[in-house]
Amino acid sequence: MAAKKKAVLFLAACLLGLAAYLYHAFCQQDNQEELVLQGNVDVREVSLAFRQSDRILEMLAEEGDRVQKGQVLARLDTRELELQLQRLNAEIAAQQSTVDKLHNGTRPEEIRQAEGNLRQAQAAAEHAAGVYQRKRDIYTSIAGISQQELDNAYHDMEAKQATMSVAEAALQEAKAGPRQEDIAGAEAGLQALRNEQLRYIYLLSQYELQAPDDGVIRSRLLEAGDMASPSRPVFKLSLPGKKWVRAYVPETELGRVYEGQQARVYIDSLPGKAIDGQVGYISGTAEFTPKQVQTEELRTSLVYEVRVYVDDADNVLRLGMPATVRIVR
Q1: Pairing of the two strands 66-67 and 215-220
Q2: Which of 1, 113, 133, 142 has the fewest CB atoms within 10 Å of its CB?
Q3: Can you list the domains of the chain with their CATH numbers?
Q4: Which UniProt keywords are listed (predicted)?
Q5: Full-model pTM
Q6: Quick count: other Cβ atoms within 10 Å of Cβ 119?
Q7: Helix/strand/coil (H, E, C) string of 195-264?
């Protein structure tokens, strides 16, 4: 009886040992099929700055605000630009009047005035010609006047005839109206002013800083009264698109990782809950002693940066949050 009992105990011990061995082997196989990495969450960010340099008039968003695409976040002082635009509008109005005048042609009143000037010039020329003729007759018949007087009468007649010719040309010009070249030049000048007006309107629109996409304000870097410029960001905006975990793979494990490989991401605030992802980027250059590493072994090894992109539908991942990545072979 005792021998039988010992045999049963021995068999039970063997079975327990076999179960322990199989469990250990299974765990080792499972560990070999997964590559465990430590990393941090990254998100896409945009640094928002004004295109123009001027003083900030209003700041309309705070850190943590959710903003929508096209929402105005800040404004610059536009008073100087608005005064310049008003002056340009006045120049456009003046040039428009000039173009309208050229298109309308010569007014009837101006033609009648030109005709009156011509009649006056003709009368003066005829009178001067008569005076010269009489003085010429006197000079040749009885020599009653000097040569100087005769010459003066002749020059006066020529001057009056020249004035009449000018009046005739002015009347013809008034009847013909403006030249097409003058009209085209005036219209080109008007178009140039209008183009300049559009440029000023565009510059005014750039005095408002708008969100390029939906997102969350992460940093408010300037305040109202500060001088803005293209090189000084005003806000940092986090975009709600793809998020990823930046991790580092040892050189000896690099062959186990490839683009498109499935992975699971875990965070401390949700223990046991996996977030699905996949490997989307593998660096082609090894780094030595990266700035952020999670284990002592990696600090003295050549490592490669890997980005595991995730679909964070519940929006639980935050920038810089530590995460554990399990890459399935």
Answers
A1: antiparallel
A2: 1
A3: 34-44+240-328 (2.40.30.170), 47-78+206-235 (2.40.50.100), 83-202 (no CATH)
A4: Coiled coil, Signal
A5: 0.60
A6: 12
A7: HHHHHHHHHHHCCEEECCCCEEEEEECCCCCCEEECCECCEEEEEEEEEEEEEEEEHHHHHHCCCCCEEE
